[in-house]
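DM from R.C. (forwarded with permission)

"hey, sorry to bug you on a friday — could you get me a structure for this? deadline for the figure draft is monday and I only need the backbone to look sensible"
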Amino acid sequence: MLRFGTGTTVRDFGDYRRWLEVADGAGFDLLSTGDSQSLWADCYASMMFAATLTSRPALAVTVSNPMTRHPAVAASAAAAVQQVSGGRFALGLASGDSALRNIGVRPSTVAELEAYAVAVRELTAGRACEWHGQRLELHWLGSPTRVRVWLAAEGPATQRLAGRIADGVVLSNCLTRERLDAALANVAEGAAEVGRSPEEVEVWCMCNLVFAASEDEGIDSIASVLAGTANHVFRFTLEGKGIPDELKDRVRGLMGEYQSRFHAQPGVANPNNALIEKYGLRAYLAAQGTVAGPPSHCVERLRQIEANGVRNVILSQFVDDPLAWMRTCAEEVLPAFR
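My reply, with the result:
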């Protein structure tokens, strides 16, 4: 049975209050926000707001990075959200993308991501850890409730890392059976390295859900989002990610022109809109991460995705009217899976 999450990026907390009210009432299992300080409001402030205004759904940052906050700073903020939410919070981490590009900071290495994730996990659990030769501890944390740490993982190295250390993994471009099976095999391999069961790793797949008169119209409306996902997923390497050889040069071309200033901001003025058509990547990218069309068609596509083995999806809201989108979800999509 599919579980459904959804997320938004916060620019106005009055609007976010209304968004939370509708999202909570719609019955989503998870509510999330992103971390890109130059584009959106602070993720921990947003999650604290959500923790006080909701009581049922899980909450998550999808995702933050190791480079813009010291691990003790992040752990302290995450532990506070965890206390206020009553244990509903998970912190997603990755190497970093738009949050770093927009301030001229490099992404983390896999080793840095691992060390950071472990430090945050230990600190929120009330345990001391070492960080660059310094002992760290959250002295204020009287009754620790360890924050679950998720990793966004798009290649074999980070997927194996998630299997070794993470409580959950967030996958992009994994709605097809081929890509999902490959990712889960990597997670299982990492888990086996440390004697864990892969069942200990909660798996969430990102999915663009767009209601439109037709599938083509829906895909066209989020062209820049597809370009942004490709830029993110393939930015370090194209190897081990299932992309056909004949598409690799096209993906490199797209990434060379992608403008991070306009990341995750669909609209007619976004210069990234034209990139997937220019490089002939529309059909390939849409199949990996997008469900679009009338609600009845979207239900059919989600059933196919469920048959592929997906169990948890985070539905992205790249739409003009997110409140109407959530009401349509609540009335015409979610009941088909309850």
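R.C.: lifesaver. The first helix runs from residue 13 to 26.
me: no worries. The first strand starts at residue 3 and ends at 7.
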